[in-house]
Structures are given as C-alpha cells and as structure tokens.
Design a protein that fits this description.
The protein contains 3 helices and 6 strands.
Length: about 110
C-alpha cells in the first residue's frame, strides 16, 4: 500500500528463429541502448518461457517502468528511445507486441 502509480512499457517478443542469437544480441547490445532511455526507473525481463492457457505465445517479455505516462512518453520520444525502438529490427525478426500500461497499487 502507498506506492505511487507507475507507467510501464511491456514488450512481448515473438519466437525468434535463433533464440541463442536473440538472447546474445539482446543482453550484449540492446540492453545497454535501452538503459539510456531518459526517465527509465526499472528494467525487468522474463526468466523462462511466457506461458498462457493457450500455450507459449511469446518467447520473451520486457517490463520497463517510468514514474508516469508523461515520463514514459518523453523517454520513448527521445533520441535514446528512438534508438532503442529502431534496434529491435536487428535482433527480433519475428516481431514484438508493445503494451503501454498506467498502473497503481491496490
């Protein structure tokens, strides 16, 4: 209780043709780029497969937290945010779904 609201950018990566190459590039190249996004407060990734009752629709999930929706928007519109978004094509040929969520504790 009492924690302040946050905005989250959730990226759900589809299954890549080469999972080892995906993870190698993601952690060695993409993470350092994404960590430079202004306003980023927390950066989490999934540990293991993403599962649902229908199976494993996604290979990998990322959760990026910001203080507010305006901070998230500013961060993603920044040159660093644009660089991170543009880099996705370099390691995720299967694509990704992006969700933007305004959260609050209950």
């Amino acid at each position: 209780m009492g924690s302040k609201p946050m905005a989250k950018l959730v990226v759900l990566y589809k299954h890549p043709p080469d999972p080892v190459a995906f993870e190698r590039y993601y952690f060695s190249t993409h993470v350092p780029i994404a960590r430079k996004v202004p306003g980023l407060k927390n950066f989490e990734v999934s540990n293991g497969p993403i599962v649902s009752p229908q199976g494993t629709p996604y290979f990998f999930a990322v959760f990026m937290s910001f203080d507010s929706m305006s901070a998230l928007d500013a961060g993603m519109r920044s040159p660093e945010g644009a660089a991170a978004a543009a880099d996705v094509a370099n390691f995720a040929p299967a694509g990704a779904d992006v969700l933007i969520v305004d959260t609050k504790s209950v």
